[in-house]
Protein backbone atom coordinates (compact mmCIF):
# COMPACT_ATOMS: atom_id res chain seq x y z
CA UNK A 1 0.00 0.00 0.00
CA UNK A 2 1.50 3.32 -1.09
CA UNK A 3 -1.26 5.63 0.16
CA UNK A 4 -3.80 5.58 2.94
CA UNK A 5 -6.90 7.78 2.74
CA UNK A 6 -8.89 9.42 5.48
CA UNK A 7 -12.70 9.63 5.45
CA UNK A 8 -12.64 12.72 3.21
CA UNK A 9 -10.67 10.89 0.53
CA UNK A 10 -7.48 12.89 1.14
CA UNK A 11 -4.48 10.61 1.04
CA UNK A 12 -1.20 10.44 2.85
CA UNK A 13 1.82 8.60 1.57
CA UNK A 14 3.51 6.23 3.98
CA UNK A 15 5.32 6.50 6.23
CA UNK A 16 2.53 8.32 8.02
CA UNK A 17 -0.25 7.90 10.53
CA UNK A 18 -3.88 8.65 11.27
CA UNK A 19 -5.32 9.17 14.74
CA UNK A 20 -8.72 7.50 15.14
CA UNK A 21 -9.27 8.63 18.74
CA UNK A 22 -8.10 7.47 22.18
CA UNK A 23 -5.19 5.01 21.63
CA UNK A 24 -6.42 3.87 18.21
CA UNK A 25 -4.11 4.82 15.34
CA UNK A 26 -3.20 3.68 11.86
CA UNK A 27 0.53 3.60 11.14
CA UNK A 28 1.54 3.24 7.49
CA UNK A 29 5.09 2.39 6.44
CA UNK A 30 6.60 0.46 3.52
CA UNK A 31 3.18 -0.53 2.23
CA UNK A 32 2.14 -2.02 5.57
CA UNK A 33 -0.64 -0.73 7.84
CA UNK A 34 -0.60 -1.27 11.61
CA UNK A 35 -3.76 -0.66 13.66
CA UNK A 36 -3.18 0.02 17.36
CA UNK A 37 -5.56 -0.72 20.28
CA UNK A 38 -8.73 -0.56 18.17
CA UNK A 39 -11.82 1.04 19.71
CA UNK A 40 -14.24 1.26 16.79
CA UNK A 41 -17.61 1.62 18.52
CA UNK A 42 -19.63 4.54 19.96
CA UNK A 43 -19.01 3.40 23.53
CA UNK A 44 -16.91 1.14 25.75
CA UNK A 45 -18.81 -0.05 28.84
CA UNK A 46 -19.60 3.15 30.79
CA UNK A 47 -17.57 5.35 28.43
CA UNK A 48 -19.03 7.00 25.36
CA UNK A 49 -17.30 8.54 22.38
CA UNK A 50 -17.81 12.22 23.07
CA UNK A 51 -15.99 13.67 20.06
CA UNK A 52 -16.62 12.54 16.49
CA UNK A 53 -18.14 9.37 15.08
CA UNK A 54 -16.67 5.86 15.29
CA UNK A 55 -13.82 5.59 12.78
CA UNK A 56 -14.36 4.45 9.21
CA UNK A 57 -12.29 4.54 6.07
CA UNK A 58 -9.62 2.49 4.33
CA UNK A 59 -7.76 -0.06 6.45
CA UNK A 60 -9.69 0.60 9.66
CA UNK A 61 -11.24 -2.86 9.49
CA UNK A 62 -8.65 -4.63 7.34
CA UNK A 63 -5.15 -3.50 8.37
CA UNK A 64 -2.16 -5.75 7.85
CA UNK A 65 -1.78 -6.28 11.60
CA UNK A 66 -3.30 -5.20 14.92
CA UNK A 67 -1.19 -4.55 18.03
CA UNK A 68 -2.65 -4.51 21.55
CA UNK A 69 -0.70 -2.72 24.26
CA UNK A 70 -2.48 -4.13 27.31
CA UNK A 71 -5.70 -5.71 28.49
CA UNK A 72 -7.77 -2.81 29.83
CA UNK A 73 -11.11 -2.70 28.03
CA UNK A 74 -10.37 0.65 26.37
CA UNK A 75 -7.33 -0.93 24.70
CA UNK A 76 -8.30 -4.58 24.28
CA UNK A 77 -11.92 -4.04 23.23
CA UNK A 78 -13.42 -7.35 22.22
CA UNK A 79 -16.41 -5.98 20.26
CA UNK A 80 -14.02 -3.89 18.16
CA UNK A 81 -11.68 -6.83 17.57
CA UNK A 82 -14.65 -8.80 16.24
CA UNK A 83 -15.12 -6.06 13.63
CA UNK A 84 -11.62 -6.64 12.20
CA UNK A 85 -11.23 -8.90 9.16
CA UNK A 86 -10.73 -12.46 10.36
CA UNK A 87 -7.40 -13.01 8.60
CA UNK A 88 -5.57 -10.12 10.29
CA UNK A 89 -2.85 -11.17 12.80
CA UNK A 90 -3.11 -9.65 16.28
CA UNK A 91 0.02 -9.03 18.37
CA UNK A 92 -0.71 -9.25 22.10
CA UNK A 93 1.28 -9.26 25.36
CA UNK A 94 2.54 -12.66 26.47
CA UNK A 95 -0.14 -14.71 28.30
CA UNK A 96 -2.93 -12.33 27.25
CA UNK A 97 -5.17 -15.22 26.09
CA UNK A 98 -4.83 -16.84 29.53
CA UNK A 99 -5.93 -13.63 31.23
CA UNK A 100 -8.73 -12.93 28.72
CA UNK A 101 -9.88 -16.32 27.37
CA UNK A 102 -12.33 -14.61 24.99
CA UNK A 103 -9.30 -13.56 22.95
CA UNK A 104 -8.95 -17.18 21.86
CA UNK A 105 -12.08 -16.73 19.77
CA UNK A 106 -9.97 -14.95 17.15
CA UNK A 107 -8.15 -18.23 16.59
CA UNK A 108 -4.56 -18.93 15.65
CA UNK A 109 -3.79 -15.38 14.50
CA UNK A 110 -2.72 -14.26 17.99
CA UNK A 111 1.01 -13.56 18.26
CA UNK A 112 2.19 -13.34 21.88
CA UNK A 113 5.21 -11.15 22.62
CA UNK A 114 7.17 -9.71 25.52
CA UNK A 115 9.70 -6.86 25.68
CA UNK A 116 12.48 -7.37 23.15
CA UNK A 117 10.51 -9.68 20.86
CA UNK A 118 10.14 -8.67 17.21
CA UNK A 119 7.54 -9.60 14.61
CA UNK A 120 7.96 -9.07 10.86
CA UNK A 121 4.74 -8.08 9.11
CA UNK A 122 4.95 -7.07 5.46
CA UNK A 123 7.53 -4.32 5.11
CA UNK A 124 7.85 -3.43 8.81
CA UNK A 125 9.36 -4.87 11.95
CA UNK A 126 7.34 -4.51 15.15
CA UNK A 127 9.34 -4.61 18.37
CA UNK A 128 7.70 -4.89 21.78
CA UNK A 129 9.05 -2.59 24.50
CA UNK A 130 8.12 -2.24 28.19
CA UNK A 131 5.42 0.05 29.55
CA UNK A 132 5.02 1.31 33.11
CA UNK A 133 1.32 0.53 33.42
CA UNK A 134 -0.93 -2.07 35.04
CA UNK A 135 -1.24 -4.81 32.43
CA UNK A 136 -4.08 -6.71 34.11
CA UNK A 137 -7.59 -6.87 32.69
CA UNK A 138 -9.09 -6.05 36.09
CA UNK A 139 -7.72 -4.09 39.03
CA UNK A 140 -7.76 -7.17 41.24
CA UNK A 141 -6.00 -10.29 40.12
CA UNK A 142 -2.54 -11.74 39.50
CA UNK A 143 0.03 -9.76 37.55
CA UNK A 144 0.53 -12.33 34.80
CA UNK A 145 0.47 -10.07 31.75
CA UNK A 146 2.64 -6.98 31.34
CA UNK A 147 1.66 -3.84 29.44
CA UNK A 148 3.70 -3.08 26.33
CA UNK A 149 4.55 -0.37 23.86
CA UNK A 150 5.61 -1.03 20.28
CA UNK A 151 8.21 0.38 17.89
CA UNK A 152 7.24 0.03 14.23
CA UNK A 153 10.30 0.23 11.97
CA UNK A 154 10.32 0.55 8.19
CA UNK A 155 11.46 3.62 6.31
CA UNK A 156 10.87 5.45 9.60
CA UNK A 157 10.61 4.46 13.24
CA UNK A 158 7.28 5.07 14.99
CA UNK A 159 6.84 4.56 18.74
CA UNK A 160 3.34 3.72 19.90
CA UNK A 161 3.47 4.01 23.69
CA UNK A 162 0.07 2.47 24.46
CA UNK A 163 -0.47 3.59 28.04
CA UNK A 164 2.56 4.21 30.22
CA UNK A 165 4.44 6.55 32.47
CA UNK A 166 8.07 7.46 31.91
CA UNK A 167 10.33 4.71 33.25
CA UNK A 168 14.06 4.76 33.98
CA UNK A 169 15.35 2.90 30.90
CA UNK A 170 12.80 4.21 28.39
CA UNK A 171 15.57 5.94 26.45
CA UNK A 172 17.42 2.64 26.08
CA UNK A 173 14.38 0.80 24.73
CA UNK A 174 13.28 3.62 22.43
CA UNK A 175 15.81 6.00 20.91
CA UNK A 176 15.53 8.61 18.17
CA UNK A 177 11.99 7.78 17.06
CA UNK A 178 10.93 9.64 13.94
CA UNK A 179 7.38 9.80 15.32
CA UNK A 180 6.20 9.21 18.88
CA UNK A 181 2.51 8.63 19.67
CA UNK A 182 2.32 9.48 23.36
CA UNK A 183 -0.61 9.33 25.80
CA UNK A 184 -1.22 12.67 27.48
CA UNK A 185 -4.50 12.11 29.33
CA UNK A 186 -7.16 9.54 30.02
CA UNK A 187 -10.90 8.90 29.94
CA UNK A 188 -11.92 10.58 33.18
CA UNK A 189 -11.38 13.63 35.37
CA UNK A 190 -8.40 12.08 37.18
CA UNK A 191 -5.28 10.12 36.22
CA UNK A 192 -3.94 7.25 38.30
CA UNK A 193 -0.50 5.71 38.45
CA UNK A 194 1.00 4.47 35.21
CA UNK A 195 -0.15 7.39 33.07
CA UNK A 196 1.49 10.44 31.57
CA UNK A 197 0.02 13.91 31.85
CA UNK A 198 1.19 16.57 29.36
CA UNK A 199 4.26 17.46 31.43
CA UNK A 200 5.37 13.82 31.74
CA UNK A 201 4.73 13.29 28.03
CA UNK A 202 7.12 16.15 27.24
CA UNK A 203 9.73 14.39 29.36
CA UNK A 204 9.08 11.15 27.47
CA UNK A 205 9.51 12.88 24.10
CA UNK A 206 12.79 14.39 25.27
CA UNK A 207 13.96 11.08 26.72
CA UNK A 208 13.53 9.18 23.45
CA UNK A 209 14.75 12.01 21.24
CA UNK A 210 11.54 12.04 19.20
CA UNK A 211 11.75 13.99 15.94
CA UNK A 212 8.01 14.64 16.06
CA UNK A 213 5.34 13.76 18.62
CA UNK A 214 1.56 13.45 18.37
CA UNK A 215 -0.47 13.40 21.61
CA UNK A 216 -3.06 10.61 21.88
CA UNK A 217 -5.18 8.94 24.59
CA UNK A 218 -7.32 11.94 25.44
CA UNK A 219 -10.31 13.85 24.09
CA UNK A 220 -12.30 10.84 22.88
CA UNK A 221 -13.94 8.74 25.60
CA UNK A 222 -15.66 10.09 28.72
CA UNK A 223 -17.92 8.53 31.38
CA UNK A 224 -21.61 8.75 30.57
CA UNK A 225 -23.31 11.49 32.59
CA UNK A 226 -20.07 13.30 33.45
CA UNK A 227 -19.91 15.80 30.59
CA UNK A 228 -19.85 18.76 32.96
CA UNK A 229 -17.27 17.30 35.36
CA UNK A 230 -13.86 18.93 34.83
CA UNK A 231 -14.33 19.28 31.04
CA UNK A 232 -10.83 20.71 30.73
CA UNK A 233 -9.47 17.24 31.48
CA UNK A 234 -11.25 16.04 28.35
CA UNK A 235 -10.45 18.84 25.90
CA UNK A 236 -7.26 20.29 27.37
CA UNK A 237 -4.42 17.74 27.50
CA UNK A 238 -3.48 17.86 23.80
CA UNK A 239 -3.16 21.63 23.62
CA UNK A 240 -1.41 21.71 27.01
CA UNK A 241 1.13 19.16 25.77
CA UNK A 242 1.73 21.09 22.54
CA UNK A 243 2.25 24.36 24.42
CA UNK A 244 4.71 22.80 26.88
CA UNK A 245 6.56 20.86 24.18
CA UNK A 246 6.99 23.83 21.85
CA UNK A 247 8.24 25.92 24.74
CA UNK A 248 10.99 23.31 25.09
CA UNK A 249 11.77 23.32 21.37
CA UNK A 250 10.09 20.04 20.43
CA UNK A 251 8.37 19.38 17.10
CA UNK A 252 4.78 18.36 17.91
CA UNK A 253 1.38 18.28 16.23
CA UNK A 254 -2.08 18.12 17.81
CA UNK A 255 -4.66 16.20 15.77
CA UNK A 256 -8.39 15.67 16.00
CA UNK A 257 -9.80 12.15 15.76
CA UNK A 258 -9.78 11.24 12.08
CA UNK A 259 -6.87 13.56 11.21
CA UNK A 260 -3.71 12.24 9.65
CA UNK A 261 -0.08 13.04 9.04
CA UNK A 262 1.29 12.02 5.67
CA UNK A 263 4.48 11.83 3.69
CA UNK A 264 7.34 12.47 6.01
CA UNK A 265 4.83 13.48 8.70
CA UNK A 266 3.77 16.66 6.94
CA UNK A 267 0.92 18.59 8.58
Labels describing this entry:
18 strands; seven-stranded mixed beta sheet; 267 residues; six-stranded mixed beta sheet; Metallo-beta-lactamase, Chain A; disordered N terminus; 6 helices; alpha/beta; globular
Walkthrough of the structure:
This protein has 267 residues and is of the alpha/beta class. It has one domain: Ribonuclease Z/Hydroxyacylglutathione hydrolase-like (Metallo-beta-lactamase, Chain A, 4-Layer Sandwich), CATH 3.60.15. It has helices at residues 78-81, 96-99, 170-173, 198-208, 232-235, 237-247; strands spanning 3-5, 11-13, 16-21, 24-29, 32-36, 43-44, 47-49, 65-67, 90-93, 110-113, 118-121, 124-130, 148-153, 157-160, 179-183, 212-216, 221-223, 260-261. The strands form four sheets. Strands 10-9-8-5-4-3-18 form a seven-stranded mixed sheet, with no helix packed on it. Strands 11-12-13-14-15-16 form a six-stranded mixed sheet. Helix 4 (198-208) packs across helix 6.
Topology:
Layout: E1 3-5, E2 11-13, E3 16-21, E4 24-29, E5 32-36, E6 43-44, E7 47-49, E8 65-67, H1 78-81, E9 90-93, H2 96-99, E10 110-113, E11 118-121, E12 124-130, E13 148-153, E14 157-160, H3 170-173, E15 179-183, H4 198-208, E16 212-216, E17 221-223, H5 232-235, H6 237-247, E18 260-261
Parallel strand pairs: 5-8, 8-9, 9-10, 14-15, 15-16
Antiparallel strand pairs: 1-2, 3-4, 3-18, 4-5, 6-7, 7-17, 11-12, 12-13, 13-14
Helix pairs in contact: 4-6
Amino acid sequence: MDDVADDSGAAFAGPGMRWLGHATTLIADRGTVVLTDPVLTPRVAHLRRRRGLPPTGPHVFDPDVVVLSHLHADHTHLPSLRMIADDVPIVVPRRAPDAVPALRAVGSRLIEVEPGDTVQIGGVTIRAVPAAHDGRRWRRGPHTTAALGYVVSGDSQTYFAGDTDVYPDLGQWVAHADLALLPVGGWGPTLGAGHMDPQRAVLAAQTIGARRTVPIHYGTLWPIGMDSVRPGKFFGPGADFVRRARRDGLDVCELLPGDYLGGQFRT
